[in-house]
Specification:
Strand content: under 5%
Shape: elongated
Structural class: mainly alpha
Radius of gyration: 22 Å
Number of helices: 6
Low-confidence stretches: none
Number of domains: 2
Largest sheet: none
Number of strands: 0
Mean pLDDT: 83
Bound molecules: heme C
Oligomer: single chain
């Protein structure tokens, strides 16, 4: 990756025709800006591991109450037309509320993992 960045940087510098005495050239600076701005727009819960979230969901039996409320395997609670969660922000607060109800003390990472799983599978917030 670093080598790719360096050679793309060199190409950019040559084509833009700018020279720089700084330790990094203009092309590299542009590239770094591009990379950091795409990171800022990363999907919500980019730090969450959806696979682990899926395991936690089973482990904490998250569906147990949801089944009673909406029937089936309980997943319809996430897709119903009048669903409560309408943004990536209140997904985490709902997870906190539900896990609090069962006395589960989830870590910040676990909440992110659960949110990543539910977002990837149902909500699809960008
Ligand atoms: C003690 C029962 C219970 C447990 C256990 C439970 N939930 Fe819930 N959950 C609810 C109820 C009730 C609602 C719906 C609230 C409403 O409709 O007003 C809900 C709704 C939700 C919603 C919002 C659905 C929507 O409408 O968009 C999410 C997300 C959610 N739960 C996540 C979880 C997760 C993750 C776990 C496991 C850590 C979990 N829940 C465990 C009772 C529970």
């Amino acid at each position: 990756m670093k080598n790719v960045a360096l050679s793309v940087g060199r190409v950019l510098t040559r084509h833009v025709g700018l020279k720089s005495d700084l330790p990094i050239n203009i092309g590299q600076a542009v590239l770094i800006l591009l990379l950091s701005s795409s990171a800022a727009q990363a999907a919500p819960f980019a730090g969450g591991h959806a696979e682990n979230g899926k395991k936690l969901f089973a482990q904490y039996e998250c569906s147990s109450c949801h089944e009673g409320k909406v029937g089936g395997d309980g997943s319809a609670i996430f897709t119903r037309s009048n669903r409560r969660v309408t943004s990536s922000k209140n997904l985490v607060s709902q997870i906190e509320q539900c896990s609090g109800a069962i006395g589960a003390n989830l870590s910040t990472q676990e909440k992110q993992d659960l949110a990543a799983h539910l977002n990837q599978t149902y909500y699809k917030f960008k």
